């Protein structure tokens, strides 16, 4: 039995090493959220087993939990680099599948059609507003900036306020609001499914998204000209890496010891 107990220990240590390695690999990924492995012990026995004589049979991976603590903020000076300063996820529409994706990576740009997109082409979702910035709709939709305003003046620039209102400026000096960023929150963000590129999708474990405007209620305000970096602490991960390595070595040594004991017993019989 000791062989299988230690083998489970080796597998668990390998899982821990894999999660830590992924954290370290994404230490420079904007909007990335680190994960940690939670283990639980395994005990097997029947109703007739003396509880004082129960022996555990190892451990198993109970969960790989995501940590959504906010990462450090880096100033960039780009008006379309955005940070949610508090709770909430940016909502985007996948350019490939049309699926709704959620992200903390606020690196946006304007594409050739005037849509606000991330580098992968996913379109930022916002609430409709009038020209003054008053919200007129509650259904998130893609944000598109007109190349010219009503008088034919050319687009000159864009700004995003703390309340998430996106304002386009034109060559004739006029400013027109084109939408308010729609932030999403979840009852259990730990249940979100990782999709890569700092994107998540909702699941039955996370619950459905609840949308709201930035800087209102429990939704964080928008900080323009900055990006949220990964929340991975390299010092903490290095300590965890050493611990996982020692755990792996200890389980390997336990297997070696059990093998030696078995060989000794076999030699006694021969």
UniProtKB/TrEMBL annotation:
Any matching Pfam family: LlgE_F_G_D1
GO cellular component, one term: bacterial-type flagellum basal body
Keyword Ubl conjugation found: no
Domain named Flagellar basal body rod protein N-terminal: residues: 3-33
Keywords: Bacterial flagellum, Cell projection, Cilium, Flagellum
UniProt main location, coarse: other
Segments forming domain Flagellar basal-body/hook protein C-terminal: 224-268
Alphabetical list of PROSITE patterns matching this protein: FLAGELLA_BB_ROD
All copies of domain Flagellar hook protein FlgE/F/G-like D1, residue ranges: 84-168
Record's subcellular location: Bacterial flagellum basal body
BP GO terms, sorted: bacterial-type flagellum-dependent swarming motility
Keyword Nucleotide-binding among UniProt keywords: no
Protein's job: A flexible structure which links the flagellar filament to the drive apparatus in the basal body.
PANTHER family documented for this protein: FLAGELLAR HOOK PROTEIN FLGE, FLAGELLAR PROTEIN
Similarity comment text for this entry: Belongs to the flagella basal body rod proteins family.
Protein's UniProt name: Flagellar hook protein FlgE
Organism: Novosphingobium sediminis
């Amino acid at each position: 039995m000791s062989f299988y107990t230690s083998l489970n220990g080796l597998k668990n240590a390998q899982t821990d090493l894999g999660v830590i390695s992924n954290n370290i690999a994404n230490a420079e990924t904007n909007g990335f959220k680190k994960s940690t492995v939670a283990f639980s012990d395994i005990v097997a026995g029947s109703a007739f087993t003396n509880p004082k004589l129960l022996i555990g049979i190892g451990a198993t991976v109970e969960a790989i939990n995501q940590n959504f603590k906010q990462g450090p903020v880096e100033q960039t000076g780009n008006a379309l680099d955005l940070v949610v300063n508090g709770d909430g996820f940016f909502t985007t529409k996948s350019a490939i599948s049309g699926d709704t994706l959620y992200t903390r990576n606020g690196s946006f740009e304007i594409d050739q059609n005037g849509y606000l997109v991330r580098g992968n082409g996913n379109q930022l979702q916002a609430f409709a507003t009038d020209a003054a910035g008053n919200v007129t709709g509650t259904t998130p939709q893609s944000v598109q900036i007109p190349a010219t305003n009503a008088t034919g003046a050319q687009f000159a620039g864009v700004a995003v306020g703390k309340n998430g209102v996106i304002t386009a400026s034109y060559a004739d000096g006029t400013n027109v609001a084109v939408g308010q960023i729609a932030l999403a929150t979840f009852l259990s963000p730990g249940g979100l499914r990782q999709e890569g590129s700092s994107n998540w999708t909702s699941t039955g474990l996370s619950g459905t998204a609840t949308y709201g405007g930035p800087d209102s209620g429990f939704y964080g305000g928008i900080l323009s000209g900055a990006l949220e970096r990964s929340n991975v602490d390299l010092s903490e991960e290095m300590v965890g890496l050493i611990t996982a390595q020692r755990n792996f070595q200890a389980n390997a040594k336990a297997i070696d010891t059990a093998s030696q004991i078995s060989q000794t017993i076999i030699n006694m019989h021969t």
